[in-house]
Design brief:
two-stranded antiparallel ribbon, about 290 residues
Length: about 290
Amino acid sequence: MDVFGYQDYREILRSELARRIRQNPRYSQGAFARDLALTPGRLSEILHGKQGVSTKVATQISKGLHFSDEESAYFLDLVESQHGRSRLLRDAARLRLHRYRRIPFAEKMGEDAFRVISDWYHVAILELLRLPHHQNSPQWIAEALSIETEEASAALDRLIRLGLIAPDPEGRPVLVDANQRFSGSMHAESFQKYARQILWRALEAVDKAQLTAMHSYILALPESQVPHILRILKDSSDRLAETIDLEHGEKDKDVVYCLALQLFPLSRIPAESSGGPESEEDVKELPPSLH
């Protein structure tokens, strides 16, 4: 069960109960209560919203459902966001949940799914759907993103097939939260393709004098600290996205931007035995456009 796809802890319990009954028609709500170390009456009141759940009971339930540490933390945050003993605790839990939902799509999706939509404009379309004035039209999307109408139309079809967007009662595409985690590697071909396209978009923005901000630092550092630096960069980006979402409602948003951070090596440690310039085999010619 994809725990991260739910916004209410009760829905997780209802879904898991239904799944077990489908697998074994003799399975009952009473058996489910037993497996969760709850009384049948208590479980019934929880499922029907007549009674809340404490952190202690939520931990007990997550163990009964054999959740991973990450799934347990998410489940407990769902509970705490509704039943925390203070407003401060409830708000903190909501903020943690918000962080799950603002993970970049390249990390939230499974690698197989991301391979299908690794062209940059798929993710941009998902963000366009957060704008209150978006239109249900491939032509409008194509014009907004400067892509071909055929590309926009095919991208919408892919996003619908993957369950990332769905039509509302009026037929307008709306965003569906996809709270999976990216299970692949930064070295995956699909991610490399996406990264190349984002960098090319940045180059185009430079050529068109559309680059809004550019801050780069070339600095010496101990290589052993790179993982720690990456965590700082990711946490900072997450907090920025959270701040934007918390301070600006969906109705205030009117444009889609790309925030891209890169950290890559510019130097290598020369071999101690080499006292002169690099050999010809070590020298790679730059593309003409980068000389």
